[in-house]
Amino acid sequence: MCADSKLVPSWRIGDRSGATAIEFVCDLSHRLANRVQVTSDGHRAYLEAVEAGFGIAVDYAQLIKLYGEVPHPKGRYSPAQIQGSKTYCCTGKPDPRHISTSYVERQDLTMRMSMRRFTRLTNGFSKKAENHGHSVAIHFMHYNFVRIHQSLRTSPAMAAGVSKTLWSFGEMVQVIEDWEAERAVKPGDQLVG
User: Fold this and answer.
1) Per-residue DSSP letters for 154-176?
2) Using one digit for the tens of pLDDT, what is the confidence trace for 33-69?
3) 3-class DSSP assignment, residue 93
4) Pick from 160, 138, 156: which is nearest to 148 by CA?
């Protein structure tokens, strides 16, 4: 997520494996034109993934949060409290003032509040991975192109210069339908299996 424009240029649905991290970071690196500063949490898979995606053409740091024990009643869910954090410079020269995971954590909250399938401990989860992927894609299309971000007073796509206008729901649906039509198998097409 871009801290300035709030644009989410890439996302990936998958497990927390190194292969998924590499696919995600490589996709992200191909969508960006300039050198960027990247901050990740302490998930080890990102060390190799950032190197695979960006090489040395990135300023990369990890922010590792240190959690403490929280006493709570048996059977009740509550997250542990953060006791502190440590930062590690991994590649390049990341600006210490901009080493933060707060923007992406806030984006995660926005996504969880916007889509029932991300609500914890409910029956609103996705039953098929394909439907889950479609829902996430629609969320990010809406977030980037249709929704006016409160602090920006415009859409993230407009703030990033990706779009010159605020999209309507109808325009978003048209883009989805056009994309689906391009991918549709036409009579006589050969399927490669």
Assistant:
1) B-HHHHHTS-SSPPPHHHHHHHH
2) 899 999 999 999 999 999 999 999 999 999 998 888 7
3) coil
4) 156
